[in-house]
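Checklist before submission:
- one chain only
- standard amino acids only
- sequence pasted in full

Submission:
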Amino acid sequence: MIEKRHGTLKYYQFANFGTLKHGMFTRLGGVSQGAWGALNLGGTVGDSVEAVRQNHQLMYDALGVNIGHTCTTWLAHGVDTVIVDAPIRNRRWVAVADGMVTDRPNLALVMRYADCTPLLFHDPVRGVIGLGHAGWRGTVMGMGASVVKTMVTAYGCRPDDIHAVIGACIGPDKYQVGHEVVEAVQKYFGTTDGLIRYDPSDNTPYFNLWEANKRDLERVGVTSIEIAGICTATHLDEFYSHRAEKGRTGRFGVVMSL
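Returned file contents:
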């Protein structure tokens, strides 16, 4: 990862994306106050509408992105991936989905996170990008695989040409889950080895989203995978965490544009 600064904003880029315009933004540098401080991009978490609008503009300015050429989705914790060609007039989101792909230059894909896993994709051969959002449900239903398969079918991408990043999310030492999650992991991956850890003091299960999403991508042929390795619940100085902050928090953003 490469740390970047733009004024008071701090964000990260990834070396395997080369010169692709992109950023995984931290919570630093925005105008939101209180529980949403400071670069909150979430418009449905109780923050001021004007503050969220200003934060979006600050984020886009950092990358040189035109706010009128941005696309996002209404996140549903599913595995639907949509092909995006342009923003939809007079609507902030293009579809109810947790994945987007495009081959259109200067069209920015944008999503928001606060413990769920950002999944970033770039195929430099075909000139295609993808962005996904995977909580535990999306992870055990193949959100990452859904984005890759859509890139393959829609644009003729080859999985071994695709560079992928697993971004900052809640880490394996903090993500305590219920037994229904353990069962879902077993069903999808055929094992829980290396994916579920049990606390030796009380046998409570913890889910490793980093490893699970990596395995999901490997199963569909992606070999170039970078894991940010940042736990949002641990690094509250830089990221929002729905779990650690008991639901009263903001959302950090990821932006990608060809």
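Reviewer check: The longest helix spans residues 49-63.
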